[in-house]
């Protein structure tokens, strides 16, 4: 062979690395999961669920009306007495079974999660599914130890819990809701979000295989009206994750009803970088904080606060890093940013980004080709942002970062807390004493230090102010599902 050796190109491209969808078997049409069976909705109505990356229809899904919801709640009510009578050690076995099944079928779940929700497969594979399984494992371990969790008290299940979850982490949110409810002896009616019902319906299959008694878990699909019907139904508790707007409506609807309520709502987290921070590490944390899951994250680090001396260098590093983010096919293993979950969410993001430009902030977006069909948004930075701009105050829930600066730690605290939300915050600094000083003063349920978006089933998660109330995860996450007699409250 005498061919000349080609000069290596200075840039190179990734070859496509799509995950196969063969492992997923979809039905044409899904009923409601009530009393351990898939049943036709009395409403007679179905809606189409799509892949946001292609806008292709995936399946028809039942739309439950108030009668359907009432039937599901009746099934949960009927299952309640026998389920709470089962010893905790036996109840644990069912929950452990769900956890193991999720691990065994993790790939199938992850692929379906990315198909229906648009999130990158590397996230559904490495984050959503492992954490969902971990959550079931963790709470299974509590089922026979509730007396030890609350010494001197008599923990008893509430009865029937209505659980309404969003579309950003469909499986993980289902796990956060179901695992503690089941471990504490409650029965459940779960309503997945209208854009991402498919993994919850696959979970129904797992629940059946785990041989949970019929009616212990019921799954009703539909949109806001179905959720509202569940709030109004004869349930003992509502657990909701979603928008602050709907959270407020649910609080009004449940006031005076005696129904217990936990709300996990929006956020506008500050990610605070001090001049002594390890900057390359901070850049990774900032990128993960806002671009993970397309920024569809309630605890996303959507407000970056940078100490003035390092602003220029941090911004340059961030812009460089954004050039390397790969936007596109969620099923490609190299994709960093997948599809926006729905057209409605894309419109919301676009509208807020336009307001940022109109209000005078400076926008930066890397050059990158976007697929023709589907819902996409380029990773976006805003500089020159002031506290009064909508992009500094409102939750965008997309891949959009607003950057502000500060001079002193006091100013950082003030700016960070200047929001109606209080779900999470991040601090980047080499100084332990400064991290602790800041963490004491930040009004946020979770404060990460030199990392961001870390989750663990053992640690409680939840908000202050308009980010909601009640905690999920950890020992704290048991309490909202229990009546606790005796002892001091
Ligand atoms: P949403 O709050 O309307 O939807 C979340 C869940 O609540 C879904 O299952 C939905 O069907 C249900 N729902 C809607 N209206 C209801 C009602 N009146 N009563 C009972 N349930 C109801 O959120 P949406 O409209 O999808 O997103 C709007 C914004 O909310 C996003 O842009 C984002 O800012 C925020 N959001 C925050 C989430 C979080 O994790 N904290 C999750 C989803 C959205
Ligand atoms: Mg809504």
The percent range for strand residues is 15-25%
Q: Tell me the major beta sheet.
A: 7 strands, mixed
What general form does the structure show?
globular
- The end-to-end distance, rounded to whole angstroms, is 83 Å
Percent helix: 25-40%
Total strand segments: 20
Spatially, the strands of the biggest sheet line up as 14-15-16-13-12-17-18
Q: Note the total helix count.
A: 15
Structural class: alpha/beta
Average per-residue pLDDT, rounded, comes to: 96
Question: Compute the gyration radius: what is it?
Answer: 23 Å
Low-confidence stretches: none
Ligand inventory = 1,4-dihydronicotinamide adenine dinucleotide, magnesium ion
Description:
The structure is a single chain. This protein has 489 residues and is of the alpha/beta class. The protein is built from 15 helices and 20 strands. The strands form 5 sheets. A 7-stranded mixed sheet has the order 14-15-16-13-12-17-18, with helices on both faces. Strands 9-8-7-10-11-19 form a 6-stranded mixed sheet, sandwiched between helices. Strands 1-5-4 form a 3-stranded mixed sheet, with no helix packed on it. Helix 10 links the parallel strand 12 and strand 13 (303-307). The longest helix is centred in the first third of the chain and has 22 residues, at 121-142. It is globular, with a radius of gyration of 23 Å. The N and C termini lie far apart (83 Å). The mean pLDDT is 96. The structure holds 1,4-dihydronicotinamide adenine dinucleotide and magnesium ion (MG). 1,4-dihydronicotinamide adenine dinucleotide is lined by residues 164-166, 168, 191, 193-194, 223-224, 227-228, 231, 241-243, 246, 249-250, 264-266, 298, 345, 348, 395, 397.
